[in-house]
Request: fold
Amino acid sequence: MTIVHAHIESPCIRKCCLNEKDMCLGCFRTLSEITQWTQVEDTVRQQILHNASHRQKAYQQQLLHFAHPQ
Reply:
């Protein structure tokens, strides 16, 4: 296994809880993204963070929808 020395730190907030889609409800990365984090370059890490951000927004929208149905 090769460890890549990169500048972007892990977004892990130590509140790991995987949902049924293997997405962490703490950082919103998938299990696959979490396990590959130390092996990828910053460009891939940026894409992972971008995807996680979109997942977090979608998750929050879903929570709002369930809390306040139309």
Notes: The radius of gyration is 14 Å. The chain has a mean pLDDT of 92. Residues 2 and 66 are 43 Å apart (CA to CA).
